Amino acid sequence: MTKPRPKILAIDDTPINLQLLLAALKLDFDLQITTSGVLGLEFAAETLPDLILLDVMMPEMDGFETCRRFKADARFRDIPIIFLTALGDVQAESTGLSLGAADYIAKPVNVDTAQQRIRNLLEREALRKEIQTQFNELKQATDLLQASRQRELEFGNAIQHTLLQGVIPKGIEGASVSSFSEPSQVVDGDFSDIRRLHTNSFDVLVGDVMGKGVGAALIGAGVRSAYHQVLADLQVVKAFGTVLPTPAEIVNELHRVVTPRLVELSSFVTLALYRFDLEAGTLTCVNAGHTPGLLLSARQGEVLTIMGDNMPIGVLPDEVYVEVCVPIGPGDSLLVYSDGITEACNAGGEQYGQERLIAAFEAGRKAALVPFALLDSIQQTLKGFTGGAPAQDDQSAIIVEWPSQVLPMTRAVDKPETRTQLLHRRAEAVARNFLTEASRGDKFLTPDKALQVLYELRVHQVELELQAEELLRTQRELEADIVERKRMEDQVRQLAFYDPLTHLPNRRLLNDRLSQTLLASKRSAFHGALMFMDLDNFKSLNDQHGHSAGDLLLVEVARRLKCCVREIDTVARFGGDEFVVLLGELALSPQESMAQAGVIAEKIRLALAEPYALNMAREGADAVSLKHRCTASIGVTLFIDGDANLDGILMRADVAMYEAKAQGRNRVQFHAARAEAVLG
Questions:
Q1: What secondary structure letter does DSSP report for 313?
Q2: Does 185 share its domain with 66?
Q3: 258 & 127 share domain
Q4: Which stretch of DSSP H or E encloses residue 327?
Q5: Could you report the per-residue pLDDT of 224-256, keeping only the tens digit for each?
Q6: Contact at 8 Å (CB) between 597 and 529?
Q7: CB 332 within 8 A of CB 402
Q8: Cα–Cα–Cα angle for 577, 578, 581, nearest 5°?
Q9: CA 366 to CA 85: how far, in whole Å?
Q10: What is the CATH number of the domain that holds 61?
Q11: What does pTM read for this prediction?
């Protein structure tokens, strides 16, 4: 398909001045002539020109004012304007250029010079439009990628709120519990679970997954779900025993279940499980690499640090987790937290640290703040220290305040129970009675009681299975979205670093490769070479057969170039019909390197000089095979680290290429000064 010819609008009150120029241009351009600036603006509004020739000295409205009006109109702002003037005044030229004119052509007009300037401007404008199009495509791809990332965060946020942060259960015998979680990336890997075991006992589980974002959130949700399953399984095993599974038994079984999966994912999890026994007045803890708990005694006013020597889950397969037990009394408070709090930094890089956290904890308790207000006070202290800077790591904390006295469990019924709620309540009551009887030494249950206990555990198991199915569905959606995000990232990279026609590296990627080659040269002392080549008969092909034929030729040239070099070398499209070949690691000797580069350049010259068979597709007709011969002029220069910058190396190769053209084309030419330095 033939590309439309560029449109030129010429504005001159004496058109005879343009006759010679227009006669030379009419074969390649569509021309439109008008005699005043007002008419020129009207003609441009009807048919947008690609370039405007504008006389300076005109009656009524001169060229400068006409130019101002063109540039003030958004429709015409980017159209190049060339002034035609007999003025030799430097001030006049400066005025025109300040108004946005692209060039000047002095009268009387030199046709050859004017024709070449017009062509150069049109080619530059076409390149600008192409770059703008690519920029728009890149921005669109970037916007799509950003939208994909936002959807990923929304998925993760749903996981955070539904599967990671435990709901504080009611009826924990007067104990007051409060928590907060502030992720660093909308969703985090911190998780928690608070579970009442029976009337006077409940567990608090806290954990932190290595890493951030959705991946950490998924792992955290999986570990929390596994904890539920392990707890249910151990309760079944001990259904006819005398005690609950201990925190150590739970954590060791959880370690056995999830460690193989964490090893496969190259991840690990720190967690701590705290067992509150109100009747015994004890706090039992298993710490798997998590931050230590802070227990503040209401009677003594001191903070006890509850440490643990065990490694995180997922690190050592044969790790055995042990528990510690400390006494606890009325009014005591436990603070558990993630390392995102103590490792938060101020503007000077100083960490918040455990000492400041303990001080804030003690100050809040002295002020008799309830857990919710105490956590808010700690948050405000932390923000004051960091200056309100966004969290660099996930921050979470839970405060449990021991009740002043143990109260009998009560259940408020605000509305009639459903059948499911009734069955749950009955099963829960049977399980609670069973545990109470077992604690008094009654080891025998009636068959009905045993069946009801097993029924309650089965109900819990079904809930876990449904939760696992929901997690699997969410994971599949996230995986599909991540695949789409990866595809868009690849598309963005392709647009940013590769030529869309030949798929060769573009100038930006070439500069990066050249920088890397210079650094490698500094380490190895090997020389490199850069070839700059321009096709000799490319314009005639475009003129005779259109740009589609030229595109086919450029694609074939790219293929031949890649066949002539090594895998470690780079072939790039510099622009138009110009290509660059970058050779690295040639030799230590400059003479030998020059000889190697010459052999490769000659191989390229011969390959590009072979006839081309271009299969031209035609709309509504069979393809036509077009025969074409095209040679290349190749400029070569050697380089080694320290002897030139990137622009200097490219300039030397470019100069050598023009020397090759001046000497008859279809030849290889080394940069003269560089070659003399090597051979001399």
A1: B
A2: no
A3: no
A4: strand 324-327
A5: 888 888 887 777 665 544 467 889 999 999 999
A6: yes
A7: yes
A8: 135
A9: 88
A10: 3.40.50.2300
A11: 0.43
